[in-house]
Amino acid sequence: MSRQSHLSPRGPAAIGPYSHAVWSGSELFCSGQTPIDPTTGQLIAGDVGAQTHRVFDNLQAVLEDAGLSMDDVVKCNVYLTDMADFAAMNAAYAERFSAPYPARTTVAVAGLPLGARVEIECLARRAG
Questions:
Q1: Residues 6+ apart with CB under 8 A from 22
Q2: Nearest to 78 by CA among 112, 44, 43, 46
Q3: The pLDDT value given to residue 14
Q4: What's the pTM?
Q5: What topology is assigned to 4-125 in CATH?
Q6: Tens digit of each residue's pLDDT (9 = 90 or more) over 82-121
Q7: Are the beta carbons of 66 and 8 closer than 8 angstroms?
């Protein structure tokens, strides 16, 4: 099966050779999003809570432009540059999903593009 790329007109421009997401059958594999403001192309200012909300705004735009919603997300991978930010990220995360929550993995990483404190990727599935 060949890759079926999905580019969101509302998502931030890719800062490398990748697609916002790729369809594989009924599954949409979303690339990691960082807290980049799509209108300026710049990393937003603010704490990890604000950055997490911007990341989810970006992911939501990609999902909606593919005909999906946050309710279609089945798995998230969260990358933090400091595990001390876990509680703030978790609070923002809890505001963006409702039960039953997607599966999730959270790991600490040495660094993220443009100095971001958080990056999140997800897998969503089209119902049916």
A1: 3, 4, 5, 6, 28, 29
A2: 112
A3: 86
A4: 0.96
A5: 60s Ribosomal Protein L30; Chain: A; (3.30.1330)
A6: 999 999 999 999 999 999 999 999 999 999 999 999 999 9
A7: yes
